[in-house]
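[step 3/7] fold_predict: job queued, chain A
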Amino acid sequence: MLLTHGYCNHGCVSEITYPLRLRGLSLPLARGARYVPGPWHVLVESQVIGAGENHFRRAARRISSWEMHRDSGMQVEARAGATVGSQVTMRIGTGWCGLTAQCEVIATVDTDREAGFAYGTLARHPERGEEAFIVRWLEDDSVVGTVAAFSRPAQWYTKAGGPVTRAVQTVAARRYLAAMLKS
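[step 4/7] structure written:
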């Protein structure tokens, strides 16, 4: 399995907005772990999204190229695909009611049976934490997509949102899953 951690595209140490000791923990969450130390909200959504190698390869490509994010309703600004150190700015909505979120890819996975990446939040994000997007091709030929995250509010409006903020995160995760194999 290839799992890489690194620096930003310019050689600087990433300025993620959560403790460095937690870096990369969204990947074990996506694989079934259920614990992150500290007061973090943990979200894990998984579903069978297809069967066979073709579905696996297509979902892996959609995840790493930001197509999944775009087809889930996000506006995406990224210079390249999801590679360690690449940064992405996402926006949902327009004008004053739109939200901007900036992240940096902190780890990638690329094997014959598992692909995806994890990104961590940067200063321009409504939350602090990390999120992983993984697709796995299981021995029974099913293809399973998983979105896993740990987070806490970083802005006044996400703190004030309470349960509504958590519901929005769940809806977003389900939209990502639906977009993993969108035509």
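[step 5/7] annotate
The CA atoms of residues 89 and 102 lie 4 Å apart.
Residues 1-13 have pLDDT under 50 and may be disordered.
exit 0
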